[in-house]
TrEMBL record:
GO terms for cellular component: cytosol. Homodimer. It comes from Croceicoccus naphthovorans. Residues 139-286 form the Tetrahydrofolate dehydrogenase/cyclohydrolase NAD(P)-binding domain. Residues 5-120 form the Tetrahydrofolate dehydrogenase/cyclohydrolase catalytic domain. Pathway: One-carbon metabolism; tetrahydrofolate interconversion. CDD domains: NAD_bind_m-THF_DH_Cyclohyd. Belongs to the tetrahydrofolate dehydrogenase/cyclohydrolase family. PANTHER family: C-1-TETRAHYDROFOLATE SYNTHASE, CYTOPLASMIC, C-1-TETRAHYDROFOLATE SYNTHASE, CYTOPLASMIC-RELATED. It catalyses: (6R)-5,10-methenyltetrahydrofolate + H2O = (6R)-10-formyltetrahydrofolate + H(+); (6R)-5,10-methylene-5,6,7,8-tetrahydrofolate + NADP(+) = (6R)-5,10-methenyltetrahydrofolate + NADPH. This is Bifunctional protein FolD.
Amino acid sequence: MATRIDGKAFAASLREKVAEGVATFVAKAGRKPGLAVVLVGEDPASQVYVRNKHKMTVAAGMESFEHRLPADTSQEALLALVDQLNADPAVDGILVQLPLPKGLDENAVIQAIDPDKDVDGFTTASAGRLATGLPGFVACTPLGCLMLLKDQLGDLSGKNAVVIGRSNIVGKPMAQLLLQESCTVTIAHSRTVDLPAVVRGADIVVAAVGRPEMVKGDWIKPGATVIDVGINRVPAAEEGKTKLVGDVDFAGAEATAGAITPVPGGVGPMTIACLLYNTLEAANRREGLA
Ligand SMILES: NC(=O)C1=CN([C@@H]2O[C@H](COP(=O)(O)OP(=O)(O)OC[C@H]3O[C@@H](n4cnc5c(N)ncnc54)[C@H](OP(=O)(O)O)[C@@H]3O)[C@@H](O)[C@H]2O)C=CC1
Ligand SMILES: Nc1nc(=O)c2c([nH]1)NC[C@@H]1CN(c3ccc(C(=O)N[C@@H](CCC(=O)O)C(=O)O)cc3)C=[N+]21
């Protein structure tokens, strides 16, 4: 039976460490680190995430600047806000909550963020820095996955890692991080032939697909470490209710894996904790304290 990796507890302890770092920053810089979050439109899931981010930013001792804009905001107005935040000395980190409403050019908005304030790690500058090993910001979800893996396994060098999914915000940066740790990395995707066989070779499996419980227990090599990034809302047993499940069939994989993250309570809480971690880092760098 696999060890359950407690992402919720790990994230809480990371947020405490960040809060200590914030106190040190305030003593030296004479101001709080600031995180600006931009939410366009009314997407209910995004509203919940943004509210949680605000609460945890304040709890860590940082300044939270929330910008809520109507769904019919123009591209020009949104870009003007990003420029204003880029120029604002009180803002160390900028996050534009995705997805944006239809009609807005997500890529153009993300690329407008100053890479030194890109605490989401979504700009091409951040992706390029990660790929070439230069200091920058790593996307929060893959960074959180890596922290959980290192905590569980220690040195990752030489391990066979399979990342399922090749998105710019999860799969690709995850693969770069594992490569940096000297894993032998395979990136699987919708065109991969015989995915079960590919996964059976993995000491480390990171599932970031967006398909509920797609990865089955009998794909998992005995003792492997399984990181489930998926957040899928599906109908629950009780009529009219919903529940969250990952991209991995948890019950099946738990029997074979060495360790596995649950959903909820696994990778999800690490994402926000890493956002705070990156924001503190951005503040320290901007003040020459890093
Ligand atoms: N915990 C957290 O904080 C976060 C969780 N998530 C969750 O992680 C999941 C992935 O997110 P994201 O990367 O943005 O998703 P995307 O939809 O951008 O990417 C999904 C990837 O999965 C691949 N894929 C789709 N179907 C299959 C299949 N049948 N077999 C193999 N690969 C397949 C796609 O392949 P192809 O490229 O060929 O189309 C694609 O590369 C989602 O559930 C999302 O909700 C995302 C961000 C943060
Ligand atoms: N610019 C931008 N940056 C993001 O990082 C970003 C984004 N846009 N858009 C949406 C996705 C998704 N995401 C999650 C954050 C926290 C949980 C999380 O805390 N999940 C809890 C459960 C939450 C619940 O119960 O709904 C858990 O897994 O335990 C999940 C998903 C960040 N994203």
